[in-house]
Amino acid sequence: MTTIPPLDHPADPSRQDADRQHLALAVEQARIGWAEGGVPIGAALVHEGEVLAVGRNRRVQMGSAIRHGETDCIERAGRLPASVYRRSVLYTTLSPCYMCAGTALLYEIPRIVIGENRTFQQSEELLRSRGVQ
Questions:
Q1: β-strand 42-47 against 50-56: which pairing, if any?
Q2: pLDDT single digits (tens) 78-130
Q3: pLDDT digits (tens, 9 = 90+) for 49-82
Q4: CB 45 within 8 A of CB 71
Q5: Which of 28, 50, 70, 108 is catalytic?
Q6: First-to-final CA distance of the chain
Q7: How far, in Å, are 19, 99, 107 from residue 102 at the CA level?
Q8: CA–CA separation, 100 and 74 (whole Å)
Q9: Residues in CB range of 25: below 8 A, 6 or more apart
């Protein structure tokens, strides 16, 4: 998991810009979900710079027990070869719950960028222990 560093961080500026751009897609999904009367959490799945899918928490809208932002995003990406997931980045507006972390682990997504983890942080140690950046 990656926290987007402040602008003065020595990380690669082009990666920072891409992370901010892709996280903005997740934030937009969260806003859409809020406007629909749902929980404002969004996600985006990106493979080598190409946006594969975006999603948002749709538990309220769909009456679903499992349609979190991350799972909705991965579902909307459709069935993809395992090699695609293994070279993708999952962007999420909130630190993933265990279900969403398990989904990312199942698909071997190597990197997760988290927008916010102060109000909720459940699975980050699990993800790190399994090699997720």
A1: antiparallel
A2: 999 999 999 999 999 999 999 999 999 999 999 999 998 888 888 989 999 99
A3: 999 999 999 999 999 999 999 999 999 999 999 9
A4: no
A5: 70
A6: 4
A7: 22, 5, 9
A8: 10
A9: 42, 44, 51, 54, 91
The DSSP-derived string for the chain is -EEPPPTTSSS-HHHHHHHHHHHHHHHHHHHHHHHTTS---EEEEEETTEEEEEEE--HHHHT-SS--HHHHHHHHH-S--HHHHTTEEEEESS---HHHHHHHHHTT--EEEES--SS--SSHHHHHHTT--
Q: Is-contact 75 55, C-beta < 8 A? A: yes
Q: Which of 38, 54, 21, 40 is nearest to 120 (CA)?
A: 40
> What's the pLDDT score for residue 7?
39
pLDDT (0 to 100) of residue 11: 63
Please indicate whether residue 108 is annotated as part of the active site.
no
